[in-house]
């Protein structure tokens, strides 16, 4: 089995209430390019107000999934619904704003002209100045679009995606090419959008971003959903806490190895390093053994390692199944 | 949608290189081709003088070039670059995109037509029988050029990358030569002339020639051009939608 079964409900618990109609629904969606399967039996439901990260390495099917969601590609089989209708209809009604990972913008026009176009095309368009301000590009509004840095271009794309009062905002690896400070500003703007009740879906392989921004993380691997839960849950799944301490007295290795929630242990001299899925239980048990650990440290593994652990495990399962 | 049309026109006018060649090229060609022709030389089978014939032919040819070349390559480039993908994530309908591109073609061609006329009148002493024929000719050639702007959009969606230039060239030369833009089709073998009669380029020049002779354009030519416009614009819009599917 894949890790999908380990975390059942989506992070926000919106599914549990069952009340709100889903924003996005994928039902058994398949998409292949020639012999390459990009998306396999994908089931996915997004609920209103969620901020969801679509996480996975290159080739995991993130961009393909977003293309299907936006109607830029059509599934070979299965169904994609956005706000209960087709992706195209949802876009025509102004319910979806989207920012693609790459692709040129219109050349030889200024930032203001381009963003103005997006505001004009959107049925519930915002005033241009407001959109420019929110995207932090007021200063570069009179610059030509083809003379921007990578990070600036991404912010223009973001403005393009948020030019109107859309209910769902889709972002494909939005911070590519941004420096650290513009990333922070950018995610601030995204949080602002989320606060207004919008549903946000973004693809990323910047794992710390998924961890920091999303309240639900969906891990894709080879076109399938590998895990779906809060980032805390995802980390927990992969034994994602590191506990380290030193012991004064003799080290009883057998007792330590029997600690609860343990996924890995490393003992060198009197220093003990443990990986645990439940740091609270493990630490409690350490004291329970009558030990007095010094310099006790509990650190998160970060989503990166968690994610590596999950995808490695899935690859191993697939290998053994052959 | 009006914003898109305005933007498309603004960026075309800002593209100085494109505008320069679009505007100047037909006049240069006119001088090269009609340079040696005498005002008394007649086009075989008609009472048109050679310089007058070439003036209309080159104005038409220039308008055709601007529409076909300008749109085809730019659209193929935009598709490849990903701009049209981004645009498809807005509620803009396919006809809006095609309409804006045709409008751009129209804006680029008008000055080129006027300049050919001015050059012909000044350098070769071309005169028309009545003053109304000048604005009528301008309007006819301008309106007719929309057909080729629409064809350009369709080509931009039909071909991509390296294929777009050769395809445009083949269509461009084929239509120009067979349609009698460069030399009167009356000098072709009978069967080729018959084919030429039904090409949009032929109907397009016939439009101008009818006015040159002091008459109204033939209904058949107008109908042919309207038909071609519908086919090309409809085809372009259809290809835009199909491209959405394929992406």
TrEMBL record, chain B:
GO biological process: response to antibiotic
Alphabetic keyword roster: Antibiotic resistance, Membrane, Transmembrane, Transmembrane helix
Membrane topology: Multi-pass membrane protein
Protein name (Swiss-Prot/TrEMBL): ABC transporter
This protein's GO CC annotations: ATP-binding cassette (ABC) transporter complex
One Pfam family of this chain: ABC2_membrane_3
Organism this protein belongs to: Streptomyces violaceusniger
PANTHER family hit by this protein: ABC-TYPE MULTIDRUG TRANSPORT SYSTEM, PERMEASE COMPONENT, NODULATION PROTEIN J
GO molecular function, one term: ABC-type transporter activity
InterPro entries listed in its UniProt record: ABC2_TM, ABC_2_transport, Nod_factor_ABC_transporter
Superkingdom of origin organism: Bacteria
Localization annotation: Membrane
Transmembrane segments: 20-39, 51-69, 102-122, 134-159, 166-183, 222-240
UniProt domain ABC-2 type transporter transmembrane: residue ranges: 53-236
